[in-house]
Amino acid sequence: MSDFSEILLNRRTIRKYSSQPVEKELLDQLLLEGTRSSTTGNMQVYSVIITRDEVKKKELSPLHFNQKMVTEAPVVLTFCADFNRFGKWCRQRSAEPGYDNFLSFMTAAIDALLVAQTLCIAAEARGLGICYLGTTIYTADKIIEVLNLPAGVIPVTTLTIGWPAEIPEQVDRLPLEAVVHEESYHDYSGELIENYYREKESRADSAQFIAENNKETLAQVFTDVRYKKADNIHFSKVLLKVLHDQGFMNQ
Ligand SMILES: Cc1cc2nc3c(=O)[nH]c(=O)nc-3n(C[C@H](O)[C@H](O)[C@H](O)COP(=O)(O)O)c2cc1C
Questions:
Q1: Are 112 and 82 in contact (CB under 8 A)?
Q2: Contact, 237 vs 138, CB < 8 A?
Q3: Beta strands in 141-210 (DSSP E)
Q4: Which residues have a Cβ under 8 Å from the Cβ of 197 and sit 6 or more positions away?
Q5: CB 152: neighbour CB atoms within 10 A?
Q6: pTM, entire model
Q7: How far is ligand 1, taken at its centre, from the CA of residue 183, in Å?
Q8: pLDDT tens, position by position, 51-101
Q9: Which residue among 7, 8, 12, 13 has the greatest number of ligand 1 atoms within 8 angstroms of its CB, and so is best to mutate?
Q10: What are phi and psi for residue 176, nearest 5 degrees?
């Protein structure tokens, strides 16, 4: 148990990988373990697309804003919310699927993310390194084309996986009491916000982040540079269209 706790507490995202391949047998084992995750009603409303082919990785790369992990990692996994397979099974068994709605998308997205995260733990427990790519939900419309995803299927996250070629410093977390609420939500006073964010703001890497981005506060790096309102609105519109086009917004 303490080994397992240590694995969880010492983990960090890995963005540089060695040229050592991730063998098929190992990846299959990770997928097997990942798919043991809880799944809504045991429906397994997700699919995982494995990308190892260099040509395919190059096609995906711009859709992940050319983050180098996509072409450098031996394995790229795209996790999809998928009601296509389950819906087909229903129809073949004289059952009418009622899954062309937003709730079903959320159900399938949650299922897909649970598999992804369990697979991450399985991979990290074996010394592999992983990196999530949030860009998947920004460019889902184009990823759908590249990976040939039919109606009822939407990519929700991507993982790059490989043997680490770096051991980066662990980044911070807020103190536990900042994110945990006893029994009901306790809203944050200005003073609590000060207390909870003080350590993060006083870190050398935060100061460097602020300077590099020419900003006055760390929060401005998020609002003005990394996760801007205009981008959020734009990519929300793209994603809502994807939901519509893939048949999840009919009710
Ligand atoms: C949903 C999600 C999307 C992410 N997207 C990216 C990404 O596009 N590029 C990247 O380098 N890291 C990405 N990350 C990794 C985070 O930056 C990282 O988890 C966070 O900075 C904390 O670092 P740690 O995982 O080393 O503790 C993502 C993480 C999550 C959970």
A1: yes
A2: no
A3: 153-162
A4: 174, 218
A5: 24
A6: 0.98
A7: 29
A8: 999 999 999 999 999 999 999 999 999 999 999 999 999 999 999 999 999
A9: 13
A10: -55, -40
